[in-house]
Amino acid sequence: MLQVTDLQPSHLDYPNTLKAYWRDRSTPILSAIGAPELLRHRTTAIFCSVKCPGDLILKTYDLARNLRDRGVSTTSGFHSPMEKECLMLLLRGTQPVIYCPARSLDKMRLSKEQNVAIRDKRLLILSPFQGNQHRMSAALAQQRNQFVAAIADDIFIAYAASGSKTETLAQQIVAWKKPLLTFKSGDNQNLIDLGAQIIHDS
């Protein structure tokens, strides 16, 4: 069984960005599986709504490969279909990946690829949830996404459906004055109107 470590706010590797942006609630004790020192890297968060337009799927595949090949540290809940595909691509590299599930880490089952990446100290599984929160819920997922955005240095959203929780998250990121990135596309006009920076296709 993999060892779960608690990270107190006083821990050397506790993310300072979380202390800065988690203002509306008490700073949580984090649970971690893997190497906490991966939190020292500058990190890009990846988000995408459940249903992603086809052209943006291809662009996001290319972006994930580019981040992997450039050695960029990434973080996400890796829950939506597009996010899961990104995780599969990212785990084939050697760069840091921080995976944040919307549940506590007790009794969590990992894939063979995840176990190998943890062994190689390039994957950290991180959660702000404790105790018996073993099942993901919509409320936990929403809180998890805010957590991921808070610990990241910049945030890329491949697509946020109009009126979705991902769009609401984008509004929170803009209110935090954190860098919000997306692709130029008519499907992303809502994000662009919020002030998202357009990144070039990989």
UniProtKB/TrEMBL annotation:
Residues of the Smf/DprA SLOG domain: 10-200
Lineage per the UniProt record: Bacteria, Bacillati, Cyanobacteriota, Cyanophyceae, Leptolyngbyales
GO MF term set: DNA binding
Keyword annotations of the record: DNA-binding
Example GO BP: DNA-mediated transformation
Keyword DNA-binding: yes
Name of this protein: DNA-binding protein
InterPro entries assigned: DrpA_SLOG (IPR057666)
Gene3D superfamilies: 3.40.50.450
Organism in which the protein naturally occurs: Leptolyngbya foveolarum
